[in-house]
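Dear colleagues,

As part of the handover before I leave the project, I'm documenting each prediction I ran so the next person doesn't have to rerun anything. This entry is a single chain, and its sequence is reproduced below.
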Amino acid sequence: MNYTWVNNEAKQTVKKLLLANGLSQRLLSQIRRGKGEVLVGERLSKITTIVPCGQVVTLKLPNENNDDIVAAQGKLTILYEDKNWLIVNKAAGMTTVPGPSNRETTLVNYVKGYLVESGSDDLVPHIITRLDRFTSGIVLIAKNKVAQGMIDKIDRKDFEKYYLAIVEGHLSSEHAIINRPIGRKGSNIRREVMAGGKKAVTEYWVRERTSDNSLVLVKLHTGRTHQIRVHFNSIGHSLLGDELYAGNLDRITRQALHAFKLKFLDPFTQKYIEIECDLPEDMRQALKK
């Protein structure tokens, strides 16, 4: 895996140039330990080497693989792909990453199988936007550790996630912001709004009203576990199908939550990538019922 940059500034070190272009300190530490090579022009160099203005710097990294991740064959709905990014529509019920109870049929396993079939040199999918098992929709995956490190440094204003959710009842406001801290008690998987919790901010707009439910567009301003589910439960409007947070199970048997839209600034091209993913059939049927 090779990446190339041109130093358009005055003389600076390789390290400073790479940091300015979004590489992580962690990756630079790996390069310093010999897990990669840096060339200034065509000369093998150190990250402390001074780079003249106009000079080309090339980063060479070994191919990635992890034998603990099994490559599996499974259906992937690909929404976007380029050299660095893979964006897929995850089905409700699919686990995102391998765990103790499932190490072979998760999204990561299927993505690795796809990368193997595609002839990719790098075979470690880096999940950037992880979804709960029963939440459907957009998942962003970095296809290499350079992309993973660079996306982690993107300013929050340049990384926007939107969801569609069906909540019980009619919300009193067409648009509002829920700003309530979230935490958990002990080892309980269930999260709660609590005074000692971490800052959590959720913004929503009502998109549609049925006789007794509301379809809302939701924007996350923070990324707490179960944030949307906890916040709507805390204001008395649990998501349909969300058994953990007292949601009604009559119309849908999983939380009615779908990662609908993703917009982010690609750190490689400095252009925005914007993807939308239609509401899945089970949520459409829940609205009709």
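The first helix runs from residue 14 to 20. The first strand starts at residue 2 and ends at 6.

All the best with the project,
I.
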